Amino acid sequence: MKSSKKKAIVVGSSTGIGRALAKKLSAEGYLVALTGRSLERLQELQKELPGESLAREIDVRDTREAIHNFRNLIMALHDLDLMVINAGVLFQNEPLQWNLEEEMIKVNALGFAAVANVAADYFLQKGAGCIVGISSVAAHRGSGRSPAYNASKAFVSNYMEGLRQKFSNTAIQVVDIRPGFVDTEMVRGRKGLFGIISPEKAAEDIYEAVRKGKRIAYVPSWWGIVMWLLRQVPESVYHWGYRRYLSWDKKKPATLP
Top-level CATH class of 7-249? Predict the structure, then answer.
C-alpha cells in the first residue's frame, strides 16, 4: 500500500484508548494499521475511520509470531513513522492465580518488548521514527490486588527509558504515556476512582504529547503531581492505606429497610 501519508500502527486498537487513538490519527491524516486479537472488531473500526487503514489480527502473546507479523505489516505499509504499543490486560487477582499473572506478563511486558523491538529495528535502519508506549500511573507503586499488572507497567516505562538512552543521539523519539483512570473496560465497575476521562480525551492528550516531542506524559497531566506525592509515601504507610482501601472496596453497599 504505497502512500505519501504518514503511517502509523496502533497495537491493541480494538477498544478503549487504542480505538480512540486510531480515530484521532486517521482524522489527522495518518494511514493507520489496526492490530488486535479480534479481526471483526478491527474491521468494524475501519468503517468509522475517515482515512485509509489496514487491519491485521495479531496476538502479541506469541512473541515470535507477532514479530514476524509486524515485520510483514510494515512491509505492507511500505514505511512506518509511528508505532503505538497499547495492547494490555488487567485482572484483579488477589488469589494470585498464576494463569492470570502469566497473561498480564505475556501481554503487557513480553508482548510490549517484542513489538518495541520490531519498531526499534526498523527505525534504526530508517534513521527516524516514533515509538509510543502506553504505560500507566500504576507503574510507580506495587499492588497486592494485581501485582503483575503494576510490575508489567513498570517494565514498560523502564524499557522505554532504555530505548531513549539508546536513541538519544538520533531522530528516533520514544514517548512514555502514563494514563490515570480512563473510562474503559479495565476500570468500569470499580469503586473509589477519581478524575476519570474518556478514551477520546486520552487520545487527544497522547497525540499532543507526541506532536510536542515529550519524553514522558501523564494523562491527564496533573497525575504527574499525584504520583510524585505518592512516591514520597513510606512503604509501610502506603501498605496501610492500601489495606484500608481494599477493606472499604469489599464492603457491600447498605440496603434500605
Answer: alpha beta
